[in-house]
Amino acid sequence: MKPIIAAQAGTFESSDIIILIEPLPENSGRKIEVESPVMFQYGESIKAVIDDMLNQFQIADVHIIAKDKGALELVIRARLETAIHRSLGN
Q1: Euclidean distance between CA atoms 16 and 5, whole angstroms
Q2: Helix, strand, or coil here: 78?
Q3: Strands annotated E in 2-89
Q4: How many beta carbons lie within 10 A of that of residue 35, not counting itself?
Q5: For burial by CB atoms within 10 Å, which of 13, 26, 65, 76 has the most?
Q6: Is 50 among the domain residues?
Q7: 1 found inside a domain
Q8: Residue 59: its H or E element
Q9: 17 found inside a domain
Q10: Is 51 helix (H, G, I), strand (E, B) or coil?
Q11: Are strands 30-35 and 62-68 parallel, antiparallel or unpaired?
Q12: Domain span holding position 62
């Protein structure tokens, strides 16, 4: 699948994450940026969760910006899934 519009989900509240999705040109690959106060401890885990979800939805050629405020994995997955559906025009 390919995102067709920029979309976002989530908030900047504590224990939440905001996910921004932007489509990229064909064959650009994935670009994942994560900002978090716990980046050193959990940054790679957050990126792995995002990458796993993108694989599940077969999403390529996308720019993801994740601004975390201490979200749990299930919150990250829920926000990303919502943003993906919005970016696909669903």
Answers
A1: 23
A2: helix
A3: 7-9, 17-23, 30-35, 62-68
A4: 14
A5: 76
A6: yes
A7: no
A8: none
A9: yes
A10: helix
A11: parallel
A12: 7-87
Total domains in the chain come to 1
Nearest to 80 by CA among 15, 22, 18: 18
pTM over 0.85? The answer is yes
User: The domain that contains 35 carries what CATH number?
Assistant: 3.30.230.10
Largest Cα–Cα separation, the chain: 36
Residues 30 and 62 sit within 8 Å (Cβ to Cβ) = yes
Residue 31 lies in a domain: yes
Please tell me the distance from the alpha carbon of residue 52 to that of residue 80, in angstroms, as a whole number.
11
Kindly state the tokens that stand for 12: 């900047």
Token output for 82 = 């919502």
pLDDT digits (tens, 9 = 90+) for 36-81: 999 999 999 999 999 999 999 999 999 999 999 999 999 999 999 9
Rounded Cα–Cα distance for residues 47 and 82 (Å): 17
